[in-house]
Write a structure and sequence with these properties.
The chain is of the alpha+beta class and 252 residues long. Helix content is 21%, strand content 35%. The strands form four sheets. It has a five-stranded mixed β-barrel. It is globular and about 50 Å long.
Length: 252
């Protein structure tokens, strides 16, 4: 079987029929029918008929890490969940692990929105890569690190369009002291700064001006070989920023 992970296709050679059926059900929306020698091939499973959850979690982690490494320098990648409208505009939900991304994504995607991802959001030149991976759910509140993978179909989540673009970006801030949800619009520069802890391969992406695309301005007094300095921000028309329409949501 072959699955798409952030634009990279993986051929999974599963050792048992039961394990194959298990992965096909879990990764249903990411299945691809391709036969190409250039695909990344991974051998999955051993003697057991079904794949234990730790092995499935590790497989998901490894594929995601390989795909992200291939995108380094070409994409902005955020630790975020995302859902989409029918027109392909997405709502990105950014926060740390345990901050409520998956819970919010499930709620949206059961009520008219399309499921895009619950963990990794990749944006390439303004286009969002769909990553409808199985969702990682906490099995019991007393053991937040013990998670299981559940397919989008099993959770009844809506499907997203094939073509996606950035819409709004929300930074979730869980605060026990908050009595009511509080929305605060953010300026693009502040949003970019606050996204740094939630970004992957950040410095490579910043070299390509994809997170906050300002153009370097050369110093007039520097002579024939000037040092590039960052002056007044000039928005690049080639790479639209992802930090416009950013909102901070403080909630209980």
């Amino acid at each position: 079987m072959s699955v798409d992970v952030l634009g990279s296709t993986f051929r999974l050679e599963v050792s048992t029929e039961a394990g194959l059926a298990q992965l096909q059900e879990t990764w249903g929306r990411s299945l691809r029918h391709l036969d190409d020698d250039s695909l990344v091939s991974l051998q999955v499973g051993g003697q057991s008929a079904i794949l234990p959850m730790p092995l499935q979690q590790r497989l998901t982690f490894d594929m995601t890490q390989i795909a992200m490494a291939k995108l380094a320098g070409r994409a902005v990648m955020l630790h975020a969940g995302a859902v989409s409208r029918a027109d392909g505009q997405i709502l990105a939900l950014v926060t740390e692990s345990g901050g409520g991304k998956t819970t919010a994504v499930i709620e949206f995607a059961r009520n008219g929105w399309g499921y895009v991802t619950d963990e990794t959001l990749a944006v390439v030149d303004g286009a969002v890569l769909p990553f409808p991976k199985p969702l990682s759910l906490v099995m019991h509140p007393s053991a937040p690190d013990a998670k299981m993978l559940v397919s989008a179909e099993a959770l009844g989540l809506g499907e997203c369009p094939e073509t996606l673009s950035m819409g709004h970006l929300v930074l979730l801030n869980r605060d026990p002291a908050a009595s009511l949800p509080e929305l605060t619009p953010l300026q693009p520069v502040e949003a970019a700064w606050r996204l740094i802890p939630h970004s992957s391969h950040l410095w490579i992406s910043m070299l390509h001006y994809k997170l906050w695309p300002v153009s370097p301005r050369r110093s007039r007094a520097a002579g024939p070989s000037p040092i590039a300095t960052f002056g007044p921000a000039r928005i690049s028309s080639r790479r639209p920023p992802i930090c416009h329409h950013a909102i901070s949501l403080r909630c209980p």
